[in-house]
Design goal:
The complex is a heterodimer of chains A (about 325) and B (about 300). With about 325 residues, chain A is mainly alpha-helical. Chain A has one domain. Chain A has 14 helices and two strands. A two-stranded antiparallel ribbon of chain A has the order 1-2. In chain A, helix 1 packs antiparallel against helix 7 and helix 3 crosses helix 4. With about 300 residues, chain B is an all-alpha fold. Chain B has a domain of about 200 residues. Chain B has eleven helices and two strands. In chain B, strands 1-2 form a two-stranded antiparallel ribbon. The chains are: A mainly alpha (about 325), B mainly alpha (about 300). Chains A and B meet through helix 5, helix 11 and helix 13 of A and helix 3, helix 4, helix 9 and helix 11 of B.
Amino acid sequence: MTGEANLWSRRLATDFRGALVVLAVTALAPLLVRDTYTLGILIVSMYFALLALGWNLLAGFTGQFSLAPAAFAMLGAYTPALLAYHLRAPLTLGLPAGIIGTAILGWLLGRVVLRLKGPYLALTTLSFAEIARMMIANSHEFTRGDQGLNVSAVTANRLGYYYLFLGLLALVVVLVFELMRSRVGRFWLAIRDDETGAESRGIDVVRYKTLAFALSCAICGAAGALYGTFSQLVSPELGLLLQTGLVIAMVVIGGIGTLTGPLFGALLVYLTSEWMRGVGNIQMIVFAALVILFARFFREGLWGFATRLRARGAAERVP
Amino acid sequence: MLQLDLFVNGLVFGLFYALMAVGLAMIFGVLKVVNFAHGEFYMIGAYTYVLVALKLGISPWLALPFAAAAGAALGWIVERTLMRPLYEGYGSWAIMKDEYAVVVTFGLSLLLINLVDKVVGPYPYRGPMLTETSRFALGPVMLNGQKLIAAGVSLALLVALAVFIKRSLWGRQIQAVAQNRFGASLAGIDATHTTSLIFSISGLLAALAGALLAPLINPSPDVGAFPAIKSYVIVVLGGMGSVWGAMIASLLLGVLESFFAVYVSYDYRDAFGLLILTLVLLLRPHGLLGERAREL
């Protein structure tokens, strides 16, 4: 690998181009598939891509391994639903409230777990996620418990939803790219690689860690809020640990700590899982096995592998 | 005397919790990782017990060793295939070391749940009882035969484990590796072998817990989730890595939960433990008997 090709800014730029290609392909997909069922599957896969990007911002770029992305999606979905159910608030109020609410909660969670690392952080975020889910599932008067709440749709048009999700996805990709290109991104990487070192160089670790938590949770919350209006029913199942497992699987298979990896991984994993549902319902077995294999032997993920091949090709051309 | 009933039943549950939690605590003590697939060891134990007893038609007592063997074998395989990188010193960690353990054990948990779901089926099984006695009253305390026997076996196992760790050569090796892996290997202890041993013991105990409780819980593939979460709470409460802390914390949690369910809220009884976990990690991260958990 040549020195220059290995520069972080170069890698990030390549990464961003890769993500744009994936987005462009997704944008053109409705030209080929028009039936509502397939469009629905693509929409759900974009929902997971949003969660994957949000979780990757926290786990892959900042090194804070949270187990709560699905819980934040659930909270983001419940905010507009509860506002509409109790106060008859319209979605124009409910959706922003969902995003801001999860951002604040994420910021608080970040403050609380500030000093925890590795397994301690994983356990605390896991218990936060499970408490949130149990509270929602058991507060029958307030949330109707397991029955879930109905939410009105933003638009009745399937294709409209498709581009709504795609727009949000593109927005998040550009946002994460711009952040990672700026000082903030460098600070996050520094915190991930060596927290004490970063602090000794004058990086305000508290501030940037909590910022990462707030942003990551807001992305998950936004995904959940929009998804709630799409499915028109929100239930505590959105926050199941299984969903978090799926998100982790997508990021690890695609390539953790990259931009294209989570995006591509989420679309690939979800679409294949829908396909495998037809051939004997083995999708979760396959993905769980793949996650273990990728983490064990193939840690860079698919995107990392692709860039390495490309870099090797470039190095061979320039002797 | 409702309180006495609650107290005794809480202690009984505490014994089951302890069977789960000590294995997790031992793994943490030696590798400093949390095994997120611990609940699936329990689930495998419960299924092995039920299926062996039903399909082979043998006495449920003879099915218990099968469950223990399955758990021990699973623990051994997991350590061999997945945990080795943690101490073989990988050069570059694209996923960091702690996170590697979270990802693989979480993945393993999903894999085992879905594998069992596919192979055995998603419907709960009814496990055969070790004894046919139904509920009976012992003074003010309501007990049932299965629970009493399971509690007795758990207690015996825990005492055996304590003696094993304190007195036997292997037990002392485990203590040494938990205190200082490098130092232990300098003293001629095969740390790798010891780690395999710990995973086997951990799997064995969790599987036996599942087998003993199988008639009460009716195992389904995701049955391990709650016992696993309980054992995280206990391991944190007792002090990460402390086996004695885990035993005390198990009994404590069992009793506290049983009172909480009656006096505060039955619906939220499972959230209560998680609340304890969060508070302990934030306020007293070294738990009751552990070393300091937060690093800075």
